[in-house]
Design brief:
This is LTXXQ motif family protein. Keywords: Signal. It comes from Termitidicoccus mucosus. It is a single chain. By secondary structure, the protein is mainly α. The chain has a domain of about 80 residues. Helix content is about 70%, strand content about 0%. The chain is built from 6 helices and no strands.
C-alpha cells in the first residue's frame, strides 16, 4: 500500500511538470495564419506591372487587411461577413491605386477566379460524373 502511494505521488508530481512544458511547447509552435496571402503584392505586381509607388501602397493595404483579418479570426460570431467586408474594402482601395488599364486587368482577373474562391469557400469541388 505504501508503494502504491509513493507511485501515485510521483505520478502527480511528474504530471505537474509535464503539463506546463507541453503548454509552452504548443504556444511556441508556428501557427498558420488564417487568410494569409503573403505573395499578393508580388502577384499583383507581376500581373498588373505595378510601379514602385503602387507596390508600396498595395503592400500597406494588404498589411492592414491582414491585421484586420487576424483580429476577426479571434471572433467566431459573424466572421464570414466581417472577412468579406474587409476584403471588399481592400479590393476597393487597391483598385483606386491602379491606372485604368490596370483596373481592367484587375477586374478581368477577379472574374477568372473560381466561383468558390469568390464566396470564401476555396477551390471549386470537382463534380462527380
Amino acid at each position: 500500500m505504501k508503494a502504491l502511494k509513493i507511485i501515485l505521488a510521483s505520478l502527480v508530481f511528474a504530471t505537474g511538470f509535464a503539463i506546463p512544458a507541453l503548454n509552452a511547447q504548443a504556444d511556441s509552435a508556428p501557427k498558420k495564419q488564417a487568410h494569409a496571402r503573403p505573395d499578393r503584392v508580388k502577384q499583383l505586381t507581376e500581373q498588373l506591372s505595378l510601379t514602385a509607388d503602387q507596390q508600396a501602397k498595395v503592400k500597406a493595404i494588404v498589411d492592414d487587411e491582414q491585421a484586420k483579418l487576424k483580429a476577426i479570426a479571434k471572433d467566431d460570431e459573424k466572421r464570414v461577413d466581417k472577412v468579406k467586408a474587409v476584403r471588399q474594402e481592400s479590393t476597393k482601395q487597391i483598385r483606386a491605386t491602379l491606372t485604368p488599364e490596370q483596373q481592367a486587368k484587375f477586374d478581368q482577373s477577379a472574374k477568372k477566379r473560381p466561383e468558390g474562391a469568390k464566396k470564401g469557400k476555396g477551390k471549386k469541388e470537382k463534380s462527380e460524373d
